[in-house]
Amino acid sequence: MDVAMPVRRWRATGKPQRTELYVRWSLYAVSLVQPLATLGMLGGAARNEADPAVLRIAAVGTVVAAALNAALFKVALPAYLGRRPRPTGWLVVSGLITYGIAFAVLLLAPALDRQGQPSFGVGIAVITTTFWVAAASLALRIREAAVVGVAAIALTGVPLVLAGLPGSSTAGALTGAAIGALAAATTCRCSAWTAAVVWELDSAREAQARLAVAEERLRFSRDLHDVLGRNLTTMALKSELAVQLSKRGRPEAVDQMTEVQRIAQESHREVRELVRGYREADLPAEVAGARSVLRAADVECETDFAMEPGTLPPRVQSVLGWVVREATTNVLRHSEAGHCAIRLRVRGGAAVLEVENDGVPLVPSPRPADGAGGHGLSGLRERLAPHGGVLDLPAVAAGSFRLTATLPLTDPAPEAPTR
């Protein structure tokens, strides 16, 4: 068995999944506290020569009640997060069994011990009520949980009175149960609320990314419409006019078609300029945009430049701007980074850009031996190659990722033709 597998799975999950997993096991831990809280109580009763059979029933009953609470937590958390209907059936069944256990212990054990103090049966009834109310509160709305909690605590007082417990002791036991149930229920609901908020933040982040993409598409389509709309309308009208003139044998039809040809060539040129302007990247603008986007995603962005990016040749700025854009996209999409560093240096007549971030999940599948990444990294290599640039993914510490782009400041000399 691979001991590191749970660690890898943990690191491979996102923040919402980690938060929910933490909350889920915290709730299970709350259920585990219930039998642990009764161990000392049952040990003290055994020293006072309590009936061993009743002690065994109380111990087994406490474990069963804790298991029912854990099962209720398991189905109540997804219901709280809106993934399934409220577990009303589980709530009723666990409540009946839990109170059946508590009442049975109260009926089998005397209300007062030999010193005239409340017996262990009273303590078990109070603890059972407290933890069941905490588990039930997660499966109900706040008002419903308050009503059910008050009713459950009041119902617990009935067997206490029937068992012969004095009124003052009964009031004290119920008050303790109410305070404990309120504290436990508040803790459970606040933990579940934290998980719900993290999921909502993650959904909002995804929605923001989709909106940004949609906005960019709308901008490009609007620019394309502005460029082609008028020209295409003019070409359609002139073509129709040329057809009519041609039918009448008028020589002006040739002039109209010549004009249509000119407009088509002009449209082609404008579209190429539009696409070129859309695909070109400006390094200072990309760095500023990356810093803004990363900070909005709660990622600390550090920049370390040996020279001002704007002083580099325009060709170098354009290519490295794409590197910054793609690297920022990778940080947001493929990591849970908390820190990102962008460094720019000049070494041996070449600009060297490094982008390094943490928060990289350690997935079980190893990275390809050649270090090839996704389509984005392949596209960057294709952009760098015509200018003599290279893209490297050097080995770094576990959980980190570094991308290094090296680009000559001058265009490489063309190769001499072979003869």
How would you describe this structure to a colleague?
With 419 residues, this protein is an alpha+beta fold. The chain folds into three domains: 5-205, no CATH class; 210-279, Single alpha-helices involved in coiled-coils or other helix-helix interfaces (Up-down Bundle), CATH 1.20.5.1930; 283-408, 2-Layer Sandwich (Heat Shock Protein 90), CATH 3.30.565. It contains eleven helices and five strands; from the N terminus they run H-H-H-H-H-H-H-H-H-E-H-E-E-H-E-E. The chain has helices at 5-12, 15-47, 52-80, 88-108, 120-138, 142-162, 167-247, 252-279, 283-296, 314-334, 375-384, and strands at 300-305, 339-347, 350-357, 390-392, 401-408. It has a five-stranded mixed β-sheet, with helices on one face. Helix 4 (88-108) packs antiparallel against helix 5 and helix 6 (142-162) packs antiparallel against helix 7. The two termini are 63 Å apart.
Mean of residue pLDDT values: 81
Enumerate how many helices there are, as a single number: 11
Instruction: Report the sheet with the most strands, covering strand number, pairing sense and barrel closure.
Output: 5 strands, mixed
Low-confidence parts: 364-374
Alpha-carbon distance between the two ends: 63 Å
Helix content: 55-70%
Shape: elongated
Strand arrangement, major sheet: 1-2-3-5-4
Query: How big a fraction of the residues is strand?
Result: 5-15%
The succession of helices and strands, N to C, reads HHHHHHHHHEHEEHEE
Give the class from helix and strand content and strand pairing: alpha+beta
- Let me know the number of strands: 5
Return Rg in Å: 36 Å
Domain module count: 3
Transmembrane segments: 21-42, 54-77, 89-112, 118-138, 145-165
Keywords: Kinase, Membrane, Transferase, Transmembrane, Transmembrane helix, Two-component regulatory system
GO molecular function, one term: kinase activity
Region (Disordered): 362-381
